[in-house]
Amino acid sequence: MRNYYIAGNWKMHKTRAEAAALAQDLTAQLKDGKHQYLVAPTFTALETVGAIIKGSNILLGAQNMASEEQGAHTGEVSVLQLKDLGVQVVILGHSERRHTYKEDDVLINKKVRLALKHGLEVILCVGELLAEREAGKAENICETQTIQGLQGVTAEDVARVTIAYEPVWAIGTGKTATPEDADAIHAYIRGVIARRYGVEAAQKIRIQYGGSVKPENAAQLMAKENIDGALVGGAALKADTFVPIAKFQ
Ligand code: PEP
User: Fold this and answer.
1) Contact assessment for residue 26 and residue 39, using Cβ atoms and an 8 Å cutoff
2) CA 235 to ligand 1: nearest atom
């Protein structure tokens, strides 16, 4: 039985003081929450937020990391530095990394393997552009991104991977995939995992939905058989909107 996993991606928002205030609110308001939670603050607030959520039911996530362990990589942040800050999970392959910063599947796969090698959990984001959906290629794009993102990942390590299906046209746009459309892609991705890792691994892997998740649509999305949680952007920036999603009924 998969438990729901609700994650908040704070992107490039919030000073340390603002991040601390939100982390305090969430820790207090989610302490009786029934699901698995995660917040991913910007790098500069990781230590501050980590100290506040330590010992709670909220995991500490980073939004990205370098593909190399260390060395001459100006401006990058390494897996060792994330671990040093207490980071437990890293989000990789987010559509903003893929499309704004031109990260390809080969680079994302290198990061996935490095994170897993160092004991982190991974949220691997996949999802199609609007033009790709309209051309009937949504399943194909998600399959390629899943297979290539997990290239070289063992059956044992895939247990520490969550997939986030985030149709790019739904991210930050207010447009949400219908629960039926999202569930169909989630089921398809689960089939991809079954072919690669077996039915048991496919039944266990959690597949989050991301793309304009709000308090108003969370419950309908989560009611679908293959939707195991949410990766939330805009609505994760305030407790008023994140808590109702995290406690959806
Ligand atoms: C995201 O960035 O992962 C995301 C899903 O954003 P939003 O919820 O704002 O669409």
Assistant:
1) yes
2) 8
